[in-house]
Every structure is written in structure tokens, then in C-alpha cells.
Amino acid sequence: MPFMKGRAPIRRTLNYLNAGKLVFKDKIRIFSVAYNILGQNNTGAKEFVFWYLPQIQYKNPDVQVTTLKNLTPSPFIKCYFEDGRRILVNVDNKSKEEILEHLLNTVGKSKDVLEAEAVAAEKKDNSANFGVGCERACICETYGQVPCSGVVPLPKFMRGKYRNQKD
């Protein structure tokens, strides 16, 4: 498999991308990470970009993610909001887990919000859901389905009583 080549090919699997924890709040539009390639104080930022940035990009498709290498003496993360506000996070001498935990607490959605959004999306998106509390009261309202037999009688060839009868 060609996608399993290179450094840490696990990062390109769908299971790994879905396992990401950081989902940004709705108002964040740009996420920027600036770090240097060399230096001990940049190790956490480098590892954060290597391990967590693919998950962040996958979980937040509407957010522009940029990385700036070798442009700053100390590593930092900057988040830009849609109303023009900015958040600057200093990641100097922090590990990748500390950086992720800090971002989860400051710009990430809480677990309760994520669960509520998942329930709402599941209920609305699935056209197979019908009955009380759903968009459709009956499956006959779905395009391509046979109408209700109480309103329009089924043709005889579609009824088991006539189809299974052998003369």
C-alpha cells in the first residue's frame, strides 16, 4: 500500500484522523503555528505539528491551518477569530500534550457541546429515520418508496398473497 510509506504512516489512516480531540469553536477561522526546526525549546511545537496537525485539519475543515517555519525566535500558536480578535499562545518549552491540553481548554469545544452536535447531526442527516420526532412520520414520504397501502392499494403482483400462490 503506497500510503503506508514514509515517517509514521499511521498518521494517514482514517482511524487516526478520527481520533483527534481538538474541534475548534465555530468562530475560529485561521489557526497558525510558528516554530523553528532547530533548538530544544521548539521540540514540543515540532512534535505537535507532526502528530496532531493532521487530526486538527481533518476535524476542522472550515479552518485555515498554516505553519510558519524558521521565522520566529520562540514558538507560538495564533488563532484568528471571524470578528478580528486574536489569541496568542506561547508554546516555548512545552510538550505536545501540554500544548494540546491548553488548546482544548481555550479554543476547543467542550465534550458536552460535541455530544449535543453529534446527536443533532445524526437525527437530521439520516433519511432512514422516520416516526415520532423525526422529519418524516412514515417511510412512504421518502422519495422512491412505495406509497402507504392505506391510501393507494398495492398492485397484486407486489402482494405476497398473490405472488406466492401457485396454480
Account of the 3D structure:
The protein has 167 residues and is of the alpha+beta class. Helices cover 31% and strands 15% of the residues. It has 5 helices and 4 strands, in the order αβαβββααα. A 4-stranded mixed β-sheet has the order 2-1-3-4, with helices on one face. A hairpin with a 4-residue loop joins β3 (76-81) and β4 (86-90). α2 (43-59) packs across α3. The longest helix is centred in the first third of the chain and has 17 residues, at 43-59. The protein is elongated.
Give the helices and strands, then pairings.
Blueprint: H1 14-18, E1 28-35, H2 43-59, E2 64-69, E3 76-81, E4 86-90, H3 96-106, H4 111-125, H5 160-163
Parallel strand pairs: 1-2
Antiparallel strand pairs: 1-3, 3-4
Helix pairs in contact: 2-3
Instruction: Give the SSE string.
Output: HEHEEEHHH
**Count of distinct strands:** 4
Helix content estimate: 25-40%
**Class derived from helix and strand content:** alpha+beta
Strand sequence of the main sheet, in spatial order? 2-1-3-4
Rg computed from alpha carbons, rounded to a whole number of angstroms: 26 Å
Strand content: 5-15%
Shape: elongated
Question: How would you state the average pLDDT, rounded?
Answer: 88
Low-confidence stretches: none
Largest sheet: 4 strands, mixed
User: Count of DSSP helices?
Assistant: 5
Distance between the termini: 57 Å
